Amino acid sequence: MTRRNLRVAAAVFFLVWVPATLWRGIEIGRTFRIGGQGQRSVTPLVEGVIQMAFVMLAPALLVGLLVLALLNWRAERRARTH
């Protein structure tokens, strides 16, 4: 396992986790707005993003681990052939 593989896997994790969290969190947070004053409040949006951050953590970690495993498999395979 090289540092480069770890950095790539971490980058993939964040590239999956952050956009998915923001996209789904804002969408969910909009449904939390109820009533006339709720339309101006930012709290429901923040709540939605926080909730989705926890939800999207597992899929993002799985993708990051998959990328790490594939990169290590490729490096091991290259080391055997050379």
Structural commentary:
It is a single chain. This protein has helices at about 5-30, 45-80. About 85% of the residues lie in helices and about 0% in strands. The model has no long low-confidence stretch (mean pLDDT about 90). It is mostly helical.
Can I get a quick summary?
The chain contains 2 helices and no strands. With 82 residues, the protein is mainly α.
- Overall average residue pLDDT: 88
How many strands?
0
Structural class: mainly alpha
Low-confidence residue ranges: none
Main β sheet profile? none
Oligomer class: single chain
Helical content stands at: over 70%
Number of helices: 2
Q: How do the strands and helices of this protein lay out in sequence?
A:
Layout: H1 3-32, H2 43-81
Features:
82 residues; mainly alpha; rod-shaped
